């Protein structure tokens, strides 16, 4: 049976799943029918693979989404078409295939960089946080289309190796944080184009730390214009 939420005037909804049965979790979320007044949604511990196709007409006011500890989740596409979404946080979703797209060889994303035409248009997004997406090897190049983005955090993405040059198109980006990405090899050269960038914070990224050291690091010329820079080798566990 559908949960009786559609008629409620809820603005915030937090869902925590403890079900071992994947089918039960899938069915519950599918029939949830959240109300159109919803502005904040948090989903934690869900065992399904794909979020329901909640359309724009159903969640027109949703602006803040947190998805955490959804170990089998591969797809967050239903949130990409929401017109007013400003903050999207994804944490510890190890199987996440960013935006469930395919590369030119037909392989599912699984960390492969994809072109801008396949990146969902989330023009309103201001804050994006990706944490514990272990399959991620590169951000999709289409991230450059997120023209309203002001804060980008990438945390504990153990297999992340590269960032796309399209990051240089994020003209509104003011803060960039990269924590615990030990395989990340370098910053994109286009970071020097980010004139609005005020804060660059890097922790536990040994390859980046070496490249960003003043004055001889290979990436130092790219970031010297940023007012606040901090590089840490050992820190608390984020």
Short note summarizing the structure:
By secondary structure, the protein is mostly beta strands.
Characterise the protein shown here.
By secondary structure, the chain is mainly β. Helices cover 8% and strands 19% of the residues. The protein is built from 3 helices and 9 strands. The protein has a 9-stranded parallel β-sheet. The protein is elongated.
Class, according to the CATH hierarchy?
Answer: Alpha Beta
* Radius of gyration, in angstroms, nearest whole number: 18 Å
**SSE run:** EHEEEEEEEHHE
Q: Helix tally?
A: 3
Features:
238 residues; mainly beta; Leucine-rich repeat, LRR (right-handed beta-alpha superhelix); nine-stranded parallel β-sheet; 9 strands; 19% strand; disordered C terminus
């Amino acid at each position: 049976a559908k949960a009786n939420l559609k008629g409620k005037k809820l603005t915030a909804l937090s869902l925590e799943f403890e079900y071992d049965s994947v089918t039960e979790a899938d069915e519950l979320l599918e029939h949830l029918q959240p109300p159109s007044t919803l502005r904040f949604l948090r989903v934690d511990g869900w065992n399904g693979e794909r979020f329901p196709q909640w359309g724009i007409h159903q969640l027109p006011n949703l602006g803040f989404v947190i998805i955490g500890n959804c170990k089998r989740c591969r797809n967050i596409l239903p949130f990409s078409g929401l017109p007013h979404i400003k903050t999207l946080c994804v944490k510890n979703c190890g199987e996440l295939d960013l935006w469930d797209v395919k590369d030119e060889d037909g392989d599912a994303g699984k960390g492969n960089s994809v072109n801008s035409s396949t990146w969902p248009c989330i023009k309103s997004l201001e804050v994006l946080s990706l944490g514990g997406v272990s399959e991620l090897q590169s951000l999709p190049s289409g991230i450059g289309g997120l023209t309203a983005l002001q804060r980008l955090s990438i945390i504990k993405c153990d297999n992340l190796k590269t960032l796309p040059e399209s990051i240089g198109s994020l003209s509104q980006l003011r803060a960039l944080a990269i924590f615990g990405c030990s395989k990340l090899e370098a910053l994109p050269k286009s970071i020097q184009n980010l004139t609005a960038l005020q804060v660059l914070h890097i922790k536990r990224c040994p390859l980046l730390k070496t490249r960003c050291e003043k004055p001889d690091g290979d990436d130092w010329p790219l970031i010297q214009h940023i007012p606040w820079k901090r590089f840490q080798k050992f820190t608390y566990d984020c």
